[in-house]
């Protein structure tokens, strides 16, 4: 007796992830948007793809994404930081300022310490 043959299933065509036509984004467009908003390369490219290459829509997309990130970080504790002082040359104004960060890696960075000193100086310059 012959074994029954397995029925062949019809091949399914791969489904497209979206109905949108593929948008080709040039490196110059990514560079221009990054210069305008300071976002990372991957986020910038994704924003341009999502917006169909429209710079203004891409900026809006990045702003919304940035707000979502900010909401996530809103509850984080900034327990590390630096204390900076500044005394004006005439000794009539002095400033003591504390600038905090979430991590000790940022707090020990020379740029962060310079930023804290600059904040103290600006406060003294604009009492």
From TrEMBL:
Family annotation (NCBIfam families): tsf
InterPro entries per the UniProt record, alphabetical: EF-Ts_dimer_sf, Transl_elong_EFTs/EF1B, Transl_elong_EFTs/EF1B_dimer, UBA-like_sf
Family label: Belongs to the EF-Ts family.
GO MF annotation: an example: translation elongation factor activity
Record's protein name: Translation elongation factor EFTs/EF1B dimerisation domain-containing protein
Region named Disordered: 1-20
Keyword Hydrolase applies: no
PANTHER family per the UniProt record, alphabetical: ELONGATION FACTOR TS, ELONGATION FACTOR TS, MITOCHONDRIAL
Record keywords, A-Z: Elongation factor, Protein biosynthesis
Domain of life of the native organism: Eukaryota
Taxonomic classification: Eukaryota, Sar, Stramenopiles, Ochrophyta, Chrysophyceae
Residues covered by the Translation elongation factor EFTs/EF1B dimerisation domain: 94-125
